[in-house]
Specification:
InterPro entries: WD40/YVTN_repeat-like_dom_sf, WD40_repeat_CS, WD40_repeat_dom_sf, WD40_rpt
WD repeats: 173-215, 217-259
Shape: globular
Number of strands: 27
Order of helices and strands: EEEEEEEEEEEEEEEEEEEEEEEEEEE
CATH class: Mainly Beta
Strand order of the largest sheet: 3-4-5-6
Largest sheet: 4 strands, antiparallel
Strand content: over 45%
Pfam family, one: WD40
Number of domains: 1
Distance between the termini: 39 Å
Organism: Tinamus guttatus (White-throated tinamou)
Oligomer: single chain
Helix content: under 10%
Keywords: Nucleus, Repeat, WD repeat
Radius of gyration: 20 Å
């Protein structure tokens, strides 16, 4: 199978249909062959894209905007591997990548965490046995801290200032060890994290509080593949699933009037986070029951049956890809 990395232009905001769908033809600007399945992708900057491969390779592709071509700029071969890096088939899938230019962190099926810097040849640091199970996703909590999720329902926090290769904190779903597939951190309040996994549930965590999720919300009927807070309006969150649905979770309704209580072990404590632009004083996500009176949930693609594998959101735009081998762009999220 010939896998490719493609750069598209979706044109200007002029041609929009009644339901906010983009009507102009998206244009393929350029593409390039990719070895193995693409497991994850992240822009490092305006021109460079970091790509995780099922072969274990991690590649930086550069988009040359002057002549609309893509080229492989840098590659770390078999950054992830099972037993022997030298073996011809020894690669383990690199499952997740996160960038904070120039730093790149990757996780994989081999339970490894790699720290790379763009333009440096080898890994700056590798935690070989970070996990005995598959690591599925990674995110930065702050510049010196990352969070990983694994296939036995655990979140692990790693303090990059520490030289010892142990997590500084472990949080986990109780009971069944449900594999977690995706994680995102609240853009303004780094202690709030959302995860999703094999059971389709949405879990909201406060990493300052205890080791269990603050709330578990019934969501999809199959695996949740991706979760994203809106980067500039984090009262909105988006999840997509194998069941063919893409949900918009909106906690922005009347939140300011309601204090948020976080119950744990019989104690109730109230947290007032620093007021940030576009955000109520108290985060609705930390309510003990966020769905009560304060959340609207909408399936943005009600008639879809094939898996929605990936999504991203920026400003009024949502883009998602499905098993129909199609990419969809909704340009009027909040219309």
């Amino acid at each position: 199978q010939d896998n490719r990395i493609s750069i598209w232009s979706v044109g200007d905001l002029g041609n929009v249909g009644l339901n906010g769908e983009y009507q102009g033809e998206p244009q393929l600007l350029c593409d390039i062959r990719h070895n193995g399945d693409v497991m994850d992708m992240q822009f490092l900057d305006q021109e460079r894209i970091v790509v995780a491969s099922s072969t274990g390779d991690v590649t930086i592709f550069r988009h040359h905007q002057n002549n609309q071509t893509l080229s492989a700029n840098q590659r770390w071969e078999k950054a992830h591997y099972h037993v022997d890096r030298q073996a011809s088939c020894g690669g383990a899938a690199c499952t997740g990548v996160i960038c904070n230019n120039p730093e790149i962190v990757t996780v994989g099926e081999d339970g490894r965490i790699n720290f790379f810097r763009a333009d440096q040849k080898g890994a700056m640091r590798t935690i070989d046995n970070a996990d005995s199970s598959t690591l599925h996703a990674v995110t930065f909590l702050r510049t010196t801290e990352i969070l990983t999720v694994n296939s036995i329902g655990q979140l692990k926090i790693w303090d990059l200032r520490q030289q010892r290769n142990e997590p500084s904190q472990i949080l986990s779903l109780t009971g069944d060890r449900v594999p977690l597939h995706c994680v995102d951190r609240h853009p303004n309040q780094q202690h709030i994290v959302a995860t999703g996994g094999q059971d389709g549930m949405l879990s909201i965590w406060d990493i300052r509080q205890g080791t269990m999720p603050v709330s578990l919300l019934n969501a999809h009927e199959a695996e949740m593949w991706e979760v994203h807070f809106h980067p500039s309006d984090p009262d909105h969150l988006f999840t997509c699933s194998e069941d063919g649905s893409l949900w918009h979770w909106d906690t922005s309704t009347n939140v300011s009037e309601k204090p948020s209580f976080l119950h744990q072990g019989g104690r109730s404590s109230t947290y007032f986070s620093h007021n940030t632009i576009n955000q109520s004083v108290v985060s609705a996500w930390l309510s003990n029951d966020p769905t009560k009176d304060r959340m609207e949930i909408t399936n943005l693609i009600p008639n879809q049956t094939l898996s929605v594998n990936s999504l991203d959101v920026l400003g009024p735009c949502l883009v998602y890809g499905t098993d129909a081998e199609a990419i969809y762009v909704n340009r009027h999220l909040f219309a």
